[in-house]
Write a structure and sequence with these properties.
By secondary structure, this protein is an alpha+beta fold. 53% of the residues lie in helices and 15% in strands. The chain is globular and about 80 Å long. The N and C termini lie far apart (54 Å). Bound molecules: 3-thiaglutaryl-CoA and flavin-adenine dinucleotide. Flavin-adenine dinucleotide binds next to β3, β5, α10 and α11.
């Protein structure tokens, strides 16, 4: 009886019963609520975000690894496994969950005042309120330290001015976490998106992550009360601490996209007759499948190792970079090679492979490009900073 790549590695023997059960719950949600429509959402570049968010809230995956305020408080590994199942459907779905739970909610949970937490987190966990996370700017992506968005004190409150770019869910969010320069260094602000002066035009004509909303945020003299600022945190460690969380989810998520490509390719190769016998029966095909399974399984072992370190509270940012760099890079390589196995059929939306491959181009770039993660690892290895 043929085995799946993860069965070959006996991955389930490394998971607890609760983790396997939780994974199954997310997988069932994906099968019934996402898979039937996802190719169409991708093609038309529309996704029923509100409806999905409510479903994901009911499922308990929004901010699932956070404690309190309506969040499930699961292990980090369980969160990673959920990301894997979500991204097996589409990276856009995992993006929705990453931005809501790991970026917008985590920022408020980690750095917010008690009042901010109570005001926003329970409704965000339920999927009733959508958040976005504004760090990147048109001229400052890999180097957020240079951001130009500015918050100046105005009486008791603040006035924010600037532009953020490439912001997931920006134009549909109810609340934006916006990072800005102040006299005291970079600070974070919780901005209700109906505040006067806030607009969020959607970015169109994307060829990647089409089943995900991406927007600009324009802050034109947005006035906020003093209570909108995160009280304590100053400097880049505020936003970068949130990125650790989302990058961790991607370590697992990218493997979901890769697994879906590989399982599709194996299924196709077993069905497709070429020169009078199944494509799966040729040595060249089997060599490809063996190598791809090996990379997928190695990526999963790395993800599980990092998950256990995170659950033990010892995971370091440069270790997250190891996982993000390797697993996204390998996922793209797997997607591209799987596409060859489908021949021409591989370029259509009838199969998920090209959609995953295109999505993974964004995943390679956001949450720190591959080059940024190489430089983070290089700094850890040498003690030399090579960003500048
Ligand atoms: P550097 O001097 O290294 O550090 C400044 C301060 O930050 C602290 N720090 C961290 N803290 C927590 N976690 C981390 N990973 C941290 N990395 C650094 C550091 O200790 C220091 O603290 P302090 O107290 O001494 O001030 O900063 P740098 O300016 O040299 O930059 C380093 C670099 C290049 C690694 C960083 O800027 C970086 O990671 N750039 C990439 C930017 C990025 O990833 N942007 C992502 C935007 S969000 C997004 O893409 C969402 S997509 C979501 C989706 O749809 O799924
Ligand atoms: P740049 O920083 O201009 O980089 C261009 C190239 O230069 C890259 O190859 C990069 O690796 C390379 N490079 C950079 N620095 C160095 C160096 N020191 N040495 C050598 N090479 C270098 N951002 C948010 O804040 N919130 C979001 O919700 C969000 N969602 C996104 C959704 C999508 C679909 C996409 C595509 C992006 C999203 N981003 C978001 C932005 C994302 O984080 C940035 O695109 C990313 O950080 C890279 O910035 P950049 O695009 O400006 O590229």
């Amino acid at each position: 009886m043929p085995q799946t790549p993860f069965e070959l590695f006996d991955i389930d023997s490394l998971l607890s019963e609760e983790e396997v059960a939780m994974r199954q719950t997310v997988r069932s949600f994906v099968e019934t609520r996402v898979r039937p429509g996802v190719a169409e959402w991708y093609e038309s570049a529309t996704i029923p975000v509100r409806e999905l968010a409510l479903g994901l809230g009911e499922l308990g995956v929004l901010g699932m690894h956070l404690e309190g305020y309506g969040c499930a408080g699961t292990s980090a590994t369980a969160y990673g496994l959920a990301c894997l199942e979500l991204e097996a459907a589409d990276s856009g779905l995992r993006s929705l969950v990453s931005v809501q739970g790991s970026l917008a909610m985590f920022a408020i949970w980690k750095w917010g005042s008690e009042e901010q937490k109570e005001a926003w987190l329970p409704r965000m966990a339920a999927g009733e309120v959508l958040g976005c996370f504004g760090l990147t700017e048109p001229d400052f992506g890999s180097n957020p330290a240079g951001m130009r968005t500015r918050a100046v004190r105005d009486g008791d409150g603040w006035v924010l001015t600037g532009t953020k770019m490439w912001i997931t869910n920006g134009s549909i969010a109810d609340v934006a976490v916006v990072w800005a320069q102040t006299e005291e260094g970079i600070r974070g602000f919780v901005v209700p998106t109906d505040t006067e002066g806030f607009t969020a035009p959607e970015i169109k004509r994307k060829m990647s992550l089409r089943a995900s909303v991406t927007s600009e945020l324009v802050l034109d003299g947005v006035r906020l009360p003093a209570t909108a600022a995160f009280p304590e945190v100053r400097g880049l460690k505020g936003p970068l601490s949130c990125l650790n969380e989302a990058r961790f989810g991607i370590v697992y998520g990218a493997l979901g996209a890769a697994r879906d490509c590989l399982e599709t390719a194996i299924g196709y190769a077993r069905e497709r007759e070429i020169f009078d016998k199944p494509l799966a029966s040729y040595q060249l095909t089997q060599a490809k499948l063996a190598d791809l399974s090996l990379e997928l399984g190695k990526g999963m072992l790395l993800a599980l190792h990092l998950g256990r370190l995170k659950d033990a509270g010892t995971l370091r940012p440069e270790q997250v970079s190891l996982g993000k760099l390797n697993n996204v890079r390998e996922a793209i390589a797997i997607a591209r090679e799987c596409r060859t196995i489908l021949g021409a059929a591989g370029i259509t939306l009838e199969y998920p492979i090209m959609r995953h491959a295109n999505n993974l181009e964004s995943v390679l770039t956001y949450e720190g490009t591959s080059e940024v993660h190489q430089l983070v690892i290089g700094r850890a290895l040498t003690g030399e900073t090579a960003f500048r």
